[in-house]
Amino acid sequence: MDHQVDVVVVGGGSTGCGVVRDLARRGLDAVLVEKGNLTHGTTGRMHGLLHSGGRYAVSDQKSARECIEENRVLRDIASHCVEETGGMFVKRPEDSEEYFQEKLEGCRACDIPVEVLDGEEARRREPYLARDVEKAIALPDGAVDPFRLCVSNAADAREHGARVETHAPVTDVLVEDGEVVGVEIEHETGPGKRVHREPGTTEEIRARHVVNATGAWAGNVGEMAGVDVEVRPSKGVMTVMNTRQVDTVINRCRPKGDADIVVPHETACILGTTDEEVDDPEDYPEEEWEVDLMIETLSELVPALKDARTLRSFWGVRPLYEPPGTGTEDPTDITRDYFLLDHGDRDDLPGMTTIVGGKLTTYRMMAESISDHVCEVLGHEATCDTAEAPLPGSESDARMEELMDEFGLRSPVARRSGQRLGSRADEVLDEYDPNPIVCECEGVTRAEVQDAIGEAGSDLNAVRLRTRASMGNCQGGFCTHRIASELAREYPEPVVRDAEDELYQERWKGQRHALWGRQLSQAMLNHLLHATTMNRDGDPANLDGEVDFGAFDAGAGSGPASADADEGGDAGTAATDGGRAGDDATTDGGRAGDNATTDGGR
Amino acid sequence: MTRDTPDDTGATDGTGRERGDGSEPRASPGVPEAGRDEQPSIFVPDDGERAGGSEADESEADERPATDGGVESATGGSDSAELDPDAYDPVDVFPGGDLDLREGADSCYKCTSCDTSCPVAEVDDEFPGPKFQGPEQWRLKRKDDHDIDESITSCSNCMRCDDACPSSVPLSQMHNEARGQFVEEQMEKLSVEYVRNRILANYRTSARLASVFPRTASFAMNFGPVRWAMEKTLGIPKERDFPEFATETFREWWKARGGAQVEDPDKRVAYFHGCYSNYNTPEVGKAMVRVYEHFGYEVMVPPQKCSGTPMFANGMLKDARRHAETNVESLIEAIGEGADVIASCTSCSMSLRQEYPELFDIHGIEDVSEHTYEALEYLRIHEDLEGELAGSELADDRSYAYHAPCHARNQGLARQAVETFRDVDGVNMEDVGDSCSGISGTYGWKEEKYEKSMKIGEEMFEHMEDAEGDVGMTECPTCAMQMEHGTGYEIKHPLQLLEETVGA
Fold it and tell me: Fewer beta carbons under 10 A from the terminal one: N or C of chain A?
């Protein structure tokens, strides 16, 4: 029997990462298990808004107050994950004045600092705003990078003795004598970092308590334990624009509705979103009308969006929950509050707690309350310090001048690297010299990629999420192979190939929803470059069986004398080139109009 | 794509026209500004040009109908609130009136055609290339980021990347704007580099002074100890020979001959001679006048300042804007009188056509752009030049090694000289290929860029030497300097050969 830990946290989203950090800092022996990458579920599929609380200031003032409180905490403890963009609620002529006033009063009631701007001033701050925007409420919305946030939480947890296992889905919840005693997980490629082609293993982790923080998937884990958790997953689309049309968060000031927010995120803008209940968080339709709706509707606020380049779209599912019997019809009306379900009290199944609902901005507060609960159950006395202790990377700001002079980075690259790495910039960038740029669109250098590989193994999607490499306008077309080749120092060629394929496919997935205009051209260029320079439309190395290298052109310098003459003609010429038969009309496909019979054979 | 850059009020009186600036004498009283028929403005001494500022002039300027339909700047104009939101095209995003060109990155597919066409990247491994300088740097920029990478100063502004891009990314505009922001925000204003660049960029100012005592200046500027001192103190490479200053400027000649000798209100051109034809090679300007008069054109020579090309290349956008205001004002007046604008320097025509409307928001600037042509180009459009030249013959055979300037290439004019003289008996015009000469205006005049400049030019020098002729030909005065510097050949302008061929 494996040894027993204090707590297993299931789910590597913001909640799970926050909980495992909190528990580890309180001195408990905790393990985090996640079936994919960190943020694989809902956390990695949101628009990255750091709420000021303004969104909930009319409908849900409790949430609004929590948001502004946690907003301030995160600016402090997670400064390298947060961009203090500021935000606005803007009013168009057709939007209700009454609601504008309600919003304003609501914000004031919740201690959200606000400033009312007239249309001119709003446009001075954000020149791309539509000219008929009448006025706006400015408030401290921000942008947060959910992945960086989760990785930092997990890293801090690890520093405090926790174990973090990704790509480790829970296959069973262990119930003995009417009590949850642990989980069984499957390590897809063995424990530790993910490395392609490593054999999978299973492991039983016995724990004094299990925290089910799987969000929209909470019902699945509940089912394994034999309890009912009624999550109502609701999907929303997010559309990524190539550049930042706005540098502050732009919200539409109206009660509720689809497509009412633009969030500047790193180099891009993210448009959101829709709210539609789905049956299965893993399998729901991704529909074109949703993307169209984003661009159409948000163009009313920012007309430039209509002609701007769209990179991709993605969907996320909200883990909405309401206590049984509430029966809300419209998912937009379901509360955004979170619920802590102790299955001992609720279902007479002690040993497990489920957390559902909630939002990223208040993840730390949720984690604190869950950790309080777990400590109470386990009789562990410790105080929470997560609101004061900075996350790794946010201890201090990266120093721009140093990055530029000492590490020879060009200023925009230094600026973006510094933002991503925060106080880790020095230690990460010190590793590599020379340190070329691997991803040009996002200004990611080899040192940063290698640092991420060190943490994530051969999982290039995890590298992508840590560094933003391949998230720019070429969507991996010009850098997937470069990123993959960084793996080659450590991993064998088949692993590198698998990793490369996986990243390239992931990049393609989101682009399928942006195949018009300029991104269509980009996708075609990417395809042709990959097909013609890397054989990616039929790489012999990916075929079964031996490659007959003798069938290839011997190349320049080999000379006809040294070539085998029995390989289908004179090896000094390109024997397979059908186009070379210039003066032999019968084999020339280009003139096949008058000789169709020979054309079919080509 | 226009903007309104507030002028540096410290440098002038704020109008940017040097009006009321005590150092510049006012125009001769009684010289009316209006009405082409009086044609007075062309006789205004060069150093007093456009100094009138009479009431009549002001009111006329105000009455001039907007040339851009009133949509100058969606954010700048007082009437802008009434604009259709769909037509809204804001550009004044960064503080200080700088342009926001981030959206230009939308058109980039990263194909790298620009990088492979960049002559600087070819010889300088440290230079990250136009793709980085342009769409990548802009996309990575945020509103509150003010730093531009220093490598922007290594761009020579040859604009070959514009030509190479299959997707119309506004590369040179991005480079110009970034360079302007770098110089404005980050360059030490007392540094030798800044002072040197400012002197080079404002070549017109130096040239105007030098032409007062042209022989002395030509001697002094190329006098060994002086050159040594210039290299040490200003970073101007001693290898370069300063161009000689003409003893009579083009404008002096024009004034002395009594201005236009052909009058035809239906066939007018306004000649933008630029600085070099005025101060250094008036023979090019004279050739232009004689050729155009031969074809029956009435030539106007409006007051003018520097086209801005050397200023863009050195990030001195405020200087460029001041000069542009004068140029646009006087050229738009000539256009109003039925003239098209003709330049004999391909960089001048490039600037008026492309960079002006891309970088500045000045009343009428779009009109100037649309009415500007290069001298040979205009004749090829409007006259039967081929017919005129077919069968013509020169007394003696001659061969030229022709280099097409990068800026001519960008205007689609790379082959015009070769094509024009193809049917002239006795003329053998050999194109020396599509390489860049490497000087790119003031670029090759910087000590730290000299080696690169010569390395870029190497291919052209070799081809020139392989060509049959030992006289060079090009439209661009600084390419001509480089051609002469690298081969020792005498260099001519196509207009000079045309003058001779048509017997103008």
Answer: N
Q: How confident is the model at residue A384 (pLDDT cuts 50, 70, 90)?
A: very high
ipTM above 0.90, yes or no: no
In three-state secondary structure terms, B134 is helix
Among the partner-chain residues A131, A400, A518, the one whose CB lies closest to the CB of B106 is A518
Nearest to A130 among B85, B132, B143 (CB): B85
Tell me whether residue B175 is in a domain.
Answer: yes
* CA-CA-CA-CA torsion sign (A73, A76, A82, A83): positive
Q: Which of A304, A441, A525 sits opposite B111 (nearest CB)?
A: A525
Say if the Cβ atoms of B132 and A410 lie within 8 Å. Answer: yes
Same domain, A463 and A491: yes
| Token pair in block for residue B391 | 């069968």
Q: What part of A 284-313 touches B (C-beta under 8 Å)?
A: 303-304, 308-309
Indicate if B133 and B158 belong to the same structural domain: yes
Query: Does the beta-carbon distance from B139 to A267 stay under 8 Å?
Result: yes
Please tell me the distance from the alpha carbon of residue A567 to that of residue A590, in angstroms, as a whole number.
Answer: 26
User: Looking at the structure, do residues B371 and B253 belong to the same domain, yes or no?
Assistant: yes
Check CB contact under 8 Å for B139 and A415: no
Domain shared by A187 and A130, yes or no: no
pLDDT of residue A558: 61
**In chain B, what residues touch A412 (CB-CB under 8 Å)?**
136-137, 140-141, 145, 147, 149
The domain that holds B494 is classified in CATH as 3.40.50
Gap between the Cα atoms of A581 and A440, Å rounded: 43
Mean pLDDT on A357-380: 95
Q: Are residues A239 and A131 in the same domain?
A: yes
Domain boundary among B338, B360, B383: B383
Contact with chain B for residue A527, Cβ under 8 A: no
> Could you tell me if A154 and A273 lie in one domain?
no
The residue segments making up the domain with residue B471 are 391-502
Q: Answer yes or no: is A393 within a domain.
A: no
Cβ separation B141–A477 shorter than 8 A: no
Within a domain: residue B76?
A: no
Q: With respect to residue B490, please indicate whether it lies within any of the assigned structural domains.
A: yes
Domain count, chain B: 4
Sign of CA dihedral A419, A424, A428, A430: positive
Which 8-state DSSP code applies to residue B5? P
- pLDDT, tens digit (0-9, with 9 covering 90-100), for A99-153: 999 999 999 999 999 999 999 999 999 999 999 999 999 999 999 999 999 999 9
The model carries a pTM of 0.82
On whether residue A323 sits in a domain, the answer given is: no
DSSP code per residue over A66-128:
HHHHHHHHHHHHTGGGEE---EEEEE-TTS-HHHHHHHHHHHHHTT---EEEEHHHHHHHSTT
User: Does the CB of A147 have a partner CB in chain B at under 8 Å?
Assistant: no
Pair A252, A291 in one domain? yes
Is B100's pLDDT higher than 70? yes
Number of domains chain A contains: 3
For residue B1, give how far its alpha carbon lies from the nearest alpha carbon of chain A (Å): 14
Domain extent, residue A371, equals: 4-41+147-230+338-378
Q: What is the C-alpha to C-alpha distance for residues A92 and A462, in angstroms, rounded to an integer?
A: 41
Return the number of CB contacts < 8 Å for A and B. Answer: 96
Span A547-596, pLDDT tens digits: 677 777 776 666 554 444 444 444 334 334 333 333 333 333 333 333 33
B71, B88, B131, best to mutate vs chain A, most A CBs in 10 Å: B88
B61 occurs within a structural domain: no
Query: Is A596 part of any domain?
Result: no
Cβ separation of B109 and A245 shorter than 8 Å?
no
